[in-house]
């Protein structure tokens, strides 16, 4: 089996541990698909560990997509410049908050991309969070020696040559799905409790109406246009209801949002596959 590749970003809800489960479902739904579409690409673990000719990778977080485009455009330059920030004197609260302020005031896309990577690796628990005014507000992470993901960046840059990056709403992505494609959706998850949700990583958020609308779009794409869609989410009574037209499977996964290892309990992950093909059991 090919060695798995880690994303260069730390990311809440990253799918590194589930890529085998996800890719086998996508391939079973359409083994001949040439393009993988991800309306919520996040850190890109599925992209990095799948084998399609082309990728359409979207996220509503403009800073994330901007970062990916800069790495795709000039990987050597970007990696060399980003590495300069990963020095001991920048691994302290004063430096971090100074760079965070610089990021929030900055309009230059290249500079924002470098600072975004710096904050991702030096900020608290790899969170990406903005307030209602769109100000990045993740606190300092207090890590001994933040890791600079040079090899992971180069691998991403190489694979990104076959990708198109977009910053659109999920609804816009579904309006322009390419021919012979499969779609994997990893939306912000339905909270397991009233206190489980954390502030959105993109201004505007993703509410329960969006969850239901995404399920509707998946049904139409799969059943009307023969473009299979796989959605992952928490297993709840409500998600089972909105995904009632899909083939449902449950997988147990460890939570990764808790900063304490012993607080990362296993939760049930729901895999909802919308496909015009006959159902298969896993």
UniProtKB/TrEMBL annotation:
A single BP term in Gene Ontology: methylation
GO molecular function, one term: site-specific DNA-methyltransferase (adenine-specific) activity
Top EC class, one word: transferase
Pfam families: MethyltransfD12 (PF02086)
EC number of this enzyme: 2.1.1.72
InterPro entries hit by this protein: Ade_MeTrfase_dom_2 (IPR023095), DNA_methylase_N6_adenine_CS (IPR002052), M_m6A_EcoRV (IPR012263), MeTrfase_D12 (IPR012327), SAM-dependent_MTases_sf (IPR029063)
Domain of life: Bacteria
Keywords: Methyltransferase, S-adenosyl-L-methionine, Transferase
Reaction catalysis annotation: a 2'-deoxyadenosine in DNA + S-adenosyl-L-methionine = an N(6)-methyl-2'-deoxyadenosine in DNA + S-adenosyl-L-homocysteine + H(+)
Family affiliation: Belongs to the N(4)/N(6)-methyltransferase family.
PANTHER family: DNA ADENINE METHYLASE (PTHR30481:SF3)
Protein name: Site-specific DNA-methyltransferase (adenine-specific)
Lineage: Bacteria, Pseudomonadati, Pseudomonadota, Gammaproteobacteria, Alteromonadales
């Amino acid at each position: 089996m090919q060695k798995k590749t880690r994303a260069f970003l730390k990311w809440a809800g990253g799918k590194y541990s589930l890529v085998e489960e996800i890719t086998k479902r996508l391939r079973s739904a359409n083994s001949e698909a040439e393009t993988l579409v991800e309306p919520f690409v996040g850190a890109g673990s599925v992209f990095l560990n799948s084998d399609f000719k082309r990728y359409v990778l979207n996220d509503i977080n403009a800073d994330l997509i901007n970062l990916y485009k800069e790495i795709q455009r000039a990987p050597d330059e970007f990696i060399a410049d980003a590495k300069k920030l990963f020095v001991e004197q920048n691994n302290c609260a004063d430096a971090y908050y100074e760079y965070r302020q610089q990021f929030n005031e900055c309009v230059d896309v290249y500079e924002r991309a470098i600072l975004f990577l710096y904050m991702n690796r030096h900020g608290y628990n790899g969170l990406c969070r903005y307030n209602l005014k769109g100000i990045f507000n993740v606190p300092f992470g207090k890590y001994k020696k933040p890791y600079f993901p040079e090899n992971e960046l180069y691998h991403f840059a190489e694979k990104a040559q076959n990708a198109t990056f977009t910053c659109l709403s999920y609804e816009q992505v579904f309006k322009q799905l390419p021919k012979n494609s499969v779609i994997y959706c990893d939306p912000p998850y339905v909270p397991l409790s009233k206190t489980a949700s954390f502030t959105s990583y993109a201004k505007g958020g993703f509410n329960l109406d969006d969850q239901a609308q995404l399920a509707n779009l998946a049904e139409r794409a799969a059943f009307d246009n023969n473009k299979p869609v796989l959605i992952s989410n928490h297993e709840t009574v409500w998600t089972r209801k909105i995904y009632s037209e899909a083939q449902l499977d449950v997988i147990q996964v460890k939570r990764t949002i808790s900063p304490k290892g012993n607080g990362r309990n296993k939760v049930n992950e729901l895999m909802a596959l919308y496909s015009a093909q006959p159902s298969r059991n896993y």
